[in-house]
Amino acid sequence: MSFVPDLLSYASIHAPDRPAVIAANRSLAFRELDSRARRLVRLFRDYSLQAGDIVALLAKNEAEYFELHVAAMRTGLILLPLNFRLALPELEYIISDSRPKLLIYAEEYSATAAALKVNRKLTLGAGYEATMAAVEPANDKHWFISADATFVILYTSGTTGRPKGAIISNRALFARINCNLFEYRMTADDRFLMCLQLFHIGSTNCLSHLYVGSTVVIIKDFDPGRVLELLPRHRITVALWVPTMINAIINLPDVDNADFTSLRLVVYGGSPIPPVTLSRAVALMGCGFLQTYGMTETNAITFLRPRDHDPINQPHRLASAGTPGLGMEARVVDSTDRDVDIGQPGEIVCRGPCLMDEYLNLPEATAEALRGGWMHTGDVGYFDHEGYLYVTDRKKDMIVSGGENVYPREVEDVLFEHPAILEAAVIGLPDEKWGERVHAVLVFKAGVATDTDGVIAFARTRLAGYKLPKTVEVVSALPKNAAGKVAKNELRKACAGTQ
Q1: Neighbours of 305 (CB within 10 A)
Q2: Which DSSP state fits 420?
Q3: For residues 301-308, average pLDDT
């Protein structure tokens, strides 16, 4: 059996009194974080949870997220962070697929938690604190944990209309942490601001900073004005934003008077960013910028590093996703998995120690995605002569809206359930605020009212808000190819001018 270091093995020795997590007005030092994790270890044992059991978490960004992760890893349990933005049927599917033994949830999601079929439940807040106080901390020494054990299961949207649970091992987590430490040049003196929700794979950024002994500041909901207040208050040195967040920040009325002096690095990713927006942010904030390109199953595949963010001398680079990160190898291949020529588009594939192990309960999907030992991303791109990767399209038509992944098939399936809809096609269109917006093209059945508001209201009960079409177009017929499939390329061209 092989092992990797415990998340707190370094910081609890070298920086026990340094703030580990700051959330609103609450601060936990590394010593306290370790003690609370030890209490949770005891609690999990009192609940008779066994190694390999799954613990689900339904909450926005809370300080407890990290002690839950640490305790789960120490006891061989698997944390399953749930996307609180999902509709109840979507969450019900994930619960039925993963079968967690315990659901921990924030009080604001009590109604949703009550509807989910999990035998044992625990509410964050006063009840959680009382339960924690009633148990003694476990005395185990946790300097190393099994590398082969599962660290987390993160569900990603599926092209078949069902999400897939990506299983990520402790070994892959440790590889991701080391890659981040190298690429971000992290030190214990950093203070990291997390603006994304922790059910995202972006949470690895937090764990990486905790591992090296730096402080993580989290916020429950992104607000650009609030972010500008927190930067100087906590002397933030590293911040993680998606492009829509950067756009919101730089368009605040008083942003020219904002204090960015503590920032040394802005990390961004999740969706394409217009070069003009990036150029303005680089000039305004006066710090380094680091773009990450990857997916839940892979972590960052490539990085566009600070030296490449040069709008004056290398403006073309701002449209690039950069070059492979530490330990990662990337190729661009054709339909037979053979390398294409430089400058020619193909599917982006990668391999390295950061990859997921498999999809939960989906051996065929796993074999397809990881065929030949390479993760097939479904993204289309090309390498230039300098070795820089450019991501040009999404082979599977995925839409990235506000940093969230939306698969058209999932939305289309719901739209087809509406009794008035004959045909539906969902595509992504460029959007200044969201990067891309979900656009639905509908064909109504003959003789029924074209009530688009009613269709959206119908879909709202079945889909997360960010998956709902933001714009709708009604047509008499959808363009199709010779095989009878909707020709989405033609549809995108026809809809290009839709505002």
Answers
A1: 16
A2: T
A3: 97
pLDDT digits (tens, 9 = 90+) for 284-294: 999 999 999 99
Q: Where in the chain is the domain with CATH 3.40.50.12780?
A: 3-383
**452: helix, coil or strand?**
helix
**Residue 159 pLDDT more than 50?**
no
- Cβ contact 458:438 at 8 Å: no
Q: What is the pLDDT of residue 158?
A: 46
Quick one: tokens of 405? 């992944």
Amino acid of residue 142: H
Q: Which of 390, 175, 277 is nearest to 289 (CA)?
A: 277
Interior/surface letters 24-49, b for 16+ CB within 10 angstroms, e for the rest = eeeebbbbbbbbbbbbbbbbbeeeeb
| pLDDT of the residue at 480 | 75
CATH superfamily of 399-495: ANL, C-terminal domain (3.30.300.30)
Q: What is the CATH number of domain 3-383?
A: 3.40.50.12780
For the segment 438-462, what is each residue's pLDDT rounded down to a tens digit?
Answer: 999 998 988 888 899 999 999 999 9
